């Protein structure tokens, strides 16, 4: 046997001499280079039934072995050469063609042989059934007397099972069967007793073979039933009773043998008159629970019988005349079967004993036949070492010549089984069949088995060593596993090279194995439970960590409720995200993420809950309550689909007025399933209900049947009654009619009742069907009481409410009287009047119009002007403030009243003059020397009067110097070095008096080393009470403020929110104890509100309780009077709640622009002051004032240019606090609305105009009357 290698896996030892036996399966796993006896691996199991439409029949036989086996066949025990052997089928498989197939019917056996032996198959039976058909025959009529039994024989032909039998007439109608007439298992038709109506000539038996799709018919038979009654001159005699007997089966006892697992059918068909009944019982026991009684109790059926179903059964047929019984002996048998498993192939050492045991069972007990290489085995052919003991074959002191394939075949009357046993007797050194340097991979913590498959005889000793240490591998985590090495809970340190060493008495061999322990796959971000709305997209994430070397084999698999979700590579990205588009209820369930490699896997589960709209409610019913117009609806809620129902909506539809249109009737809570509703009369209703949850409304329920309500009187009267007077002597009454559903019945109309308020007691009434009514020939603007009541054919509605209205208006007939004007200042006027008598207004008072005409300016008295303007003041009032006048002008003013119909006549005109306005010069200080400074100012832009000169003041300590000048330039001498100087204030002096002073602070240059830092320039004081100032950035150091009658405040600002505003300021040290007042007015309502006194040191005041999105006027005042001089005035608008505002201050473009502007300004200022320090471009030519030698007057230069800066600013850089009203024309007020406060002052909203001033207190207003 040199050069022959076999694969060996050790088995449990039976005895020491049998220690080399191996299983048949072990032999079959040998490498192709190892010689091995033939083994049948597949063959056709019989029986084979050839169908008529089968073109070919294939009988398979395939074996393996080395050398490859050769095949031969036998048929019915004789050698058989297949007629067609094709290369399409491996091994010994052959085909039989349909033509002439009948000749090949029989039992076949396949043999596969090579040098080491012969294997064989069980018998394969081929059945070729013929086409079933009934024989041609002539059937004589069956003639019986009434009451006698009848048996119509079918005798169906044999054929391919399954076979079904039918009894029918010639027109293919089934013969009716019952307790009297029934068909037996054999196909015959049995009549327990014949009746007259059984007579017919077309009883036909049909046999249906479904597998071959064939139905055959027997020649029809005739039955003639003769009557037994007497009909001649006598009454019909009663039919005599007849004792039962059995038509089937015959005799007294029947033996029934069947195999375990088959179905048991026992049949008893009795005959007799009256028709007998059948009863069943099992002798000595109860009928099995699986027992069924079919065919009207005549057939006992038990499925899949076993040994416990065997025994004696009895059927009993009985009627009033007697009874008959029959006994069945039921015997349940078994075909042969292996008690444990078929005998296994064996490998043993020369000189040992071999035992082959063929343990089988069956009923009756099987007979065992032994074969060697397919030939019947005989133990008396001169071989003393082979013996047969019952089911065991024994080889004593086996040698190499005993190697062969042995067959054990067990058979009884019900079949046979066969096993091929390969026996090899030999000695051989170990041969390791596992590939050398086999690589193994395992993840950390898992078990791994490194194979070492050895074939040897006798069996080898196998040991494992690690190549690095050459020490035998041992320990709790290492175990011998049939020669292979099993490592439990592998660790990273287990990686490396291992050697498997196998040795026996014949020699030794070894192979290497490489183990790589990898990191385990672990899900680090498992999917989370989700609740998602139907129709949206669900995303389940599953991120895992995996060993780098396994990334190419890594994949993420998703399963839903245990079934894998098929995903393409595009749908299954490496990040493990599962995206479910348009989620629906079918997507709800448990989702498992499986992150796996070829070595291991990890999984995590998440529950996806789909929220959807509720299902439609079911079983909607109507229940009447106290009346037919008060009903209760009840329903059964549908599924809420994981989101609780928040409410149910009850809808209705009526067929009379708006058929097909569903409207909401009532809402009920989601935990209720009933709703009580009140209905209108004379309507044909239909109802439905739908549920609502957080996802949305669900589908509606099925509508109810129509529900008709009885008619009734109206339950309400018309609403929204409107009373108008489009004509002076007419009263128009209109109202909102009742909806058609509110009629409650036919014949709806309205009763209109009216009377003069406080004059008439009797109501005038009119019935109308329309929803309007006109009362004519009324007095102008007379109050009336009106009421409207509805009614229909079934009665009146409820008592109506009384409303009041007026008849038509007409234009006013009288003008206001006693019109007087009071000139407040150069631009503002207060107008007062006595209202026109109410009777002359002849309508709802709309308000008053004030008209004024500027006739001339006193600067140009000969020029006639025609500048007309009007302001309207709504509501009842006697006073108004008129702004926007021009100074030093002559005006004429009239007033008229108006209502909705138009304006009344104008009052008598009033003529008045406005005084001269203030004249503001522009002052600058320059060329400051050690003890002198040059002052330059410009004439006022508008003289507003006749300019006569300038008044100049300056302060030295507590002493004030005053000078009068007619020029625009002056110089100051004899100043102290380095001292700050409040510069003089030149005042233009028109004829009536001086204009407001203008102040600038300066200082003489300091000694060397000091820096100039700042200076303040003060501008115009427009009245003795209100100052407007300008601050200029410069290189002066100290600022001194010009004293004023009101507190001097710095950095006045406002912050506005939606419901409050904050006014902030900074007060100088000497003004810390001053008291301030904050006034504000809603520009639409016109009412001023003034705060309590606020100490100036507090620095802010908060106005709360404001309305969002509203325009307000805010004033900061030194006195509590609203008309008094104000320090600060602003128009603000509160924000709208929730409105998003974009803060441009944070935008990059704005910040960059502001930085550039600041840089350019700094450069310009530096250049400006450099030039000033050099003397500028002015040539100073000064003359001394004869009254004050210390002053220089009449200074000029060759290119005199006043300093620009006519806009007036405050000390803190705020806008002018001067009388801006006096400088505005009416166009500055924009779109002036007709809104006034209670005292008549004008509070119109200005479009695009910010008003920051107030009217000053007049020093001596002079009233002017007509």
UniProtKB/TrEMBL annotation:
<dbReference type="InterPro" id="IPR013783">
    <property type="entry name" value="Ig-like_fold"/>
</dbReference>
<dbReference type="InterPro" id="IPR007110">
    <property type="entry name" value="Ig-like_dom"/>
</dbReference>
<keyword id="KW-1133">Transmembrane helix</keyword>
<dbReference type="GO" id="GO:0005886">
    <property type="term" value="C:plasma membrane"/>
</dbReference>
<dbReference type="GO" id="GO:0007420">
    <property type="term" value="P:brain development"/>
</dbReference>
<comment type="similarity">
    <text>Belongs to the immunoglobulin superfamily. L1/neurofascin/NgCAM family.</text>
</comment>
<feature type="domain" description="Ig-like">
    <location>
        <begin position="129"/>
        <end position="216"/>
    </location>
</feature>
<feature type="domain" description="Fibronectin type-III">
    <location>
        <begin position="1046"/>
        <end position="1139"/>
    </location>
</feature>
<dbReference type="GO" id="GO:0098632">
    <property type="term" value="F:cell-cell adhesion mediator activity"/>
</dbReference>
<dbReference type="InterPro" id="IPR036116">
    <property type="entry name" value="FN3_sf"/>
</dbReference>
<feature type="domain" description="Ig-like">
    <location>
        <begin position="521"/>
        <end position="609"/>
    </location>
</feature>
<feature type="domain" description="Fibronectin type-III">
    <location>
        <begin position="616"/>
        <end position="712"/>
    </location>
</feature>
<feature type="transmembrane region" description="Helical">
    <location>
        <begin position="1149"/>
        <end position="1170"/>
    </location>
</feature>
<keyword id="KW-0472">Membrane</keyword>
<dbReference type="Pfam" id="PF00041">
    <property type="entry name" value="fn3"/>
</dbReference>
<feature type="domain" description="Ig-like">
    <location>
        <begin position="38"/>
        <end position="127"/>
    </location>
</feature>
<dbReference type="GO" id="GO:0030424">
    <property type="term" value="C:axon"/>
</dbReference>
<keyword id="KW-1015">Disulfide bond</keyword>
<dbReference type="InterPro" id="IPR013098">
    <property type="entry name" value="Ig_I-set"/>
</dbReference>
<keyword id="KW-0812">Transmembrane</keyword>
<dbReference type="InterPro" id="IPR026966">
    <property type="entry name" value="Neurofascin/L1/NrCAM_C"/>
</dbReference>
<feature type="region of interest" description="Disordered">
    <location>
        <begin position="977"/>
        <end position="1006"/>
    </location>
</feature>
<keyword id="KW-0130">Cell adhesion</keyword>
<feature type="domain" description="Ig-like">
    <location>
        <begin position="430"/>
        <end position="516"/>
    </location>
</feature>
<keyword id="KW-0677">Repeat</keyword>
<feature type="domain" description="Fibronectin type-III">
    <location>
        <begin position="815"/>
        <end position="917"/>
    </location>
</feature>
<dbReference type="Pfam" id="PF07679">
    <property type="entry name" value="I-set"/>
</dbReference>
<keyword id="KW-1003">Cell membrane</keyword>
<dbReference type="GO" id="GO:0007411">
    <property type="term" value="P:axon guidance"/>
</dbReference>
<dbReference type="InterPro" id="IPR036179">
    <property type="entry name" value="Ig-like_dom_sf"/>
</dbReference>
<keyword id="KW-0732">Signal</keyword>
<dbReference type="Pfam" id="PF13927">
    <property type="entry name" value="Ig_3"/>
</dbReference>
<dbReference type="Pfam" id="PF13882">
    <property type="entry name" value="Bravo_FIGEY"/>
</dbReference>
<feature type="domain" description="Ig-like">
    <location>
        <begin position="244"/>
        <end position="319"/>
    </location>
</feature>
<dbReference type="InterPro" id="IPR003961">
    <property type="entry name" value="FN3_dom"/>
</dbReference>
<protein>
    <recommendedName>
        <fullName>Cell adhesion molecule L1-like b</fullName>
    </recommendedName>
</protein>
<feature type="compositionally biased region" description="Pro residues">
    <location>
        <begin position="981"/>
        <end position="995"/>
    </location>
</feature>
<keyword id="KW-0325">Glycoprotein</keyword>
<feature type="domain" description="Ig-like">
    <location>
        <begin position="336"/>
        <end position="424"/>
    </location>
</feature>
<dbReference type="InterPro" id="IPR003598">
    <property type="entry name" value="Ig_sub2"/>
</dbReference>
<keyword id="KW-0393">Immunoglobulin domain</keyword>
<dbReference type="InterPro" id="IPR003599">
    <property type="entry name" value="Ig_sub"/>
</dbReference>
């Amino acid at each position: 046997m040199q050069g022959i290698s076999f694969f060996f896996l050790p088995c449990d030892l039976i005895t020491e001499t049998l220690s080399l036996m191996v299983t048949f399966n072990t032999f079959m796993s040998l490498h192709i280079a190892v010689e091995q006896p033939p083994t049948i691996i597949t063959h056709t199991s019989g029986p084979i039934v050839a169908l008529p439409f089968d073109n070919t029949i294939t009988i398979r036989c395939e074996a393996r072995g080395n050398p490859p086996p050769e095949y031969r066949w036998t048929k019915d025990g004789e050698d058989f050469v297949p007629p067609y052997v094709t290369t399409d089928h491996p091994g010994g498989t052959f085909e039989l063609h349909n033509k002439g197939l009948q000749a090949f019917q029989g039992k076949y056996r396949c043999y596969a042989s090579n040098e080491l032996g012969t294997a064989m198959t069980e018998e394969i039976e081929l059945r070729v059934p013929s086409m079933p058909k009934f024989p041609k025959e002539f059937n004589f009529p069956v003639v019986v007397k009434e009451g006698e039994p009848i048996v119509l024989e079918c005798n169906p032909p044999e054929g391919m099972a399954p076979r079904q039998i039918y009894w029918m007439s010639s027109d293919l109608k089934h013969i009716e069967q019952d307790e009297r007439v029934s068909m037996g298992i054999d196909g015959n038709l049995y009549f327990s007793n014949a009746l007259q109506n059984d007579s017919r000539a077309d009883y036909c038996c049909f046999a249906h073979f479904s597998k071959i799709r064939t139905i055959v018919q027997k020649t029809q038979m005739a039955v003639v039933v003769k009557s037994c009654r007497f009909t001649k001159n006598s009454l019909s005699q009663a039919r005599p009773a007849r004792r039962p007997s059995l038509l089937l089966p015959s005799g007294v006892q029947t033996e029934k043998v069947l195999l375990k697992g088959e179905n048991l059918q026992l049949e008893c068909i009795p005959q007799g008159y009256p028709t007998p009944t059948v009863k069943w019982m099992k002798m000595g026991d109860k009928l099995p629970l699986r027992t069924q009684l079919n065919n009207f109790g005549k057939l006992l059926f038990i499925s899949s019988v076993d040994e416990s179903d065997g025994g004696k059964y009895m059927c009993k047929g009985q009627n009033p005349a007697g009874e008959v019984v029959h006994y069945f002996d039921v015997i349940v048998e078994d075909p042969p079967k292996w008690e444990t498993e078929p005998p296994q192939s064996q490998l043993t050492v020369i000189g040992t004993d071999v035992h082959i045991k063929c343990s089988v069972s069956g009923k009756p007990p099987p007979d065992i036949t032994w074969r060697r290489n397919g030939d019947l085995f005989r133990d008396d052919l001169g071989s003393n070492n082979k013996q047969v003991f019952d089911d065991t074959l024994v080889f004593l002191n086996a040698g190499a010549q005993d190697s062969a394939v042995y067959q054990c075949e067990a058979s009884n009357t019900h079949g046979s089984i066969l096993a091929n046993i390969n026996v090899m007797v030999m000695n051989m050194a170990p041969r390791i069949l596992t590939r050398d340097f086999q690589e193994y991979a395992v993840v950390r913590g898992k078990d791994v088995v490194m194979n070492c498959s050895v074939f040897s005889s006798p069996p080898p000793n196998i040991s494992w060593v690690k190549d690095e240490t050459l020490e035998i591998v041992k320990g709790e985590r290492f175990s011998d596993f049939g020669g292979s090495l099993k490592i439990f809970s592998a660790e990273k340190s287990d990686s490396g090279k291992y050697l498997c060493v196998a040795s026996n008495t014949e020699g030794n061999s070894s192979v290497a194995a490489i183990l790589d322990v990898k990191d385990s796959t672990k899900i680090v971000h498992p999917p989370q439970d989700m609740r998602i709305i139907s129709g949206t997209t669900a995303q389940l994430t599953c991120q895992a960590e995996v060993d780098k070397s396994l990334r190419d084999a890594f994949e993420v698999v998703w399963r839903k409720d245990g079934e894998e979700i098929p995903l393409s590579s595009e749908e299954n990205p490496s990040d493990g995200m599962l995206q479910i588009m348009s989620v629906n209820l079918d997507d709800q369930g448990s989702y498992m993420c499986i992150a796996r490699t070829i070595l291991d896997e990890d999984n995590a589960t998440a529950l996806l809950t789909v929220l959807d709209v509720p299902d439609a409610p079911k079983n909607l019913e109507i229940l009447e309550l106290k009346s037919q117009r008060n009903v209760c609806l009840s329903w059964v809620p549908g599924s809420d689909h994981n989101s609780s129902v928040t409410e149910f909506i009850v809808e209705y539809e009526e067929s009379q007025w708006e058929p097909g249109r569903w409207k909401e009737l009532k809402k009920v809570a989601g935990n209720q399933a009933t709703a009580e509703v009140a209905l209108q009369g004379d309507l044909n209703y239909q109802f439905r209900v739908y549920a609502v949850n957080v996802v949305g409304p669900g589908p509606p329920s099925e509508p109810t049947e129509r529900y008709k309500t009885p008619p009734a009187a109206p339950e309400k009267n018309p609403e929204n009654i409107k009373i108008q007077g489009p004509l002076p002597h007419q009263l128009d009454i209109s109202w909102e009619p009742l909806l058609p559903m509110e009629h409650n019945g036919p014949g709806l109309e309205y009763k209109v009742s009216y009377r003069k308020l406080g004059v008439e007691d009797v109501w005038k009434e009119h019935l109308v069907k329309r929803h309007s009514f006109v009362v004519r020939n009324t007095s102008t603007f007379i109050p009336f009481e009106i009421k409207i009541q509805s009614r229909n054919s079934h009665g009146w509605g409820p008592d109506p409410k009384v409303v009041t209205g007026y008849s038509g208006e007409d234009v006013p007939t009288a003008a206001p009287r006693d019109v007087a004007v009071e000139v407040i200042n150069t631009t503002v006027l207060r107008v007062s009047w006595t209202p026109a008598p109410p009777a002359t207004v002849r309508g709802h008072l709309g308000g008053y119009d004030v008209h004024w005409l500027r006739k001339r300016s006193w600067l140009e008295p000969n020029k006639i002007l025609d500048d007309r303007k009007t302001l309207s003041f709504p509501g009842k009032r006697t006073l108004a403030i008129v702004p926007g006048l021009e100074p030093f002008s002559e005006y004429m003013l009239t007033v008229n009243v108006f209502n909705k119909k138009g304006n009344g006549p104008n009052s008598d005109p009033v003529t008045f003059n406005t005084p001269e306005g203030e004249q503001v010069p522009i002052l600058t200080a320059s060329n400051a020397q050690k003890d002198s400074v040059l002052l330059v100012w410009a004439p006022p832009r508008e003289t507003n009067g006749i300019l006569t000169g300038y008044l100049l003041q300056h302060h030295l300590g507590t002493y004030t110097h005053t000078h009068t000048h007619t020029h625009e330039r002056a110089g100051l001498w004899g100043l102290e070095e380095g001292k700050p100087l409040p510069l003089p204030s030149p005042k233009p002096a028109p004829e009536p008096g001086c204009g407001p002073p203008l102040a600038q602070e300066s200082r003489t240059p300091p000694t060397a080393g000091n820096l100039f830092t700042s200076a303040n320039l003060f501008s115009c004081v427009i009245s003795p009470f209100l100052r407007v100032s300008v601050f200029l950035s410069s290189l002066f150091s100290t600022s001194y403020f010009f004293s004023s009658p009101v507190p001097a405040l710095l950095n006045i600002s406002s912050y506005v929110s939606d419901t409050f505003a904050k006014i902030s300021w900074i007060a100088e040290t000497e003004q810390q104890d001053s008291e301030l007042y904050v006034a504000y007015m809603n520009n639409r309502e016109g009412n001023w509100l003034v705060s309590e006194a606020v100490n100036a040191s507090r620095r802010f005041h908060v106005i709360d309780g404001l309305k969002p999105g509203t325009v307000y006027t805010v004033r900061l005042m030194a006195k509590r009077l609203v008309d008094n001089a104000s320090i600060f005035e602003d128009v603000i608008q509160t924000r709208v709640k929730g409105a998003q505002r974009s803060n441009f201050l944070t935008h990059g473009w704005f910040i960059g622009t502001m930085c550039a502007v600041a840089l350019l300004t700094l450069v310009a200022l530096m250049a400006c002051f450099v030039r000033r320090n050099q003397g500028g471009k002015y040539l100073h030519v000064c003359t001394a004032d004869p009254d004050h030698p210390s002053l220089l007057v009449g200074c000029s230069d060759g290119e005199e240019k006043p300093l620009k800066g006519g806009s007036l600013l405050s000390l803190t850089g705020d806008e002018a606090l001067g009388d801006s009203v006096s400088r505005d024309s009416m166009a500055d007020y924009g779109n002036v609305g007709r809104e006034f406060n209670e005292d008549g002052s004008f509070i119109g909203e200005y479009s695009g105009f910010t008003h920051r001033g107030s009217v000053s207190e007049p020093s001596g207003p002079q009233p002017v009357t007509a």
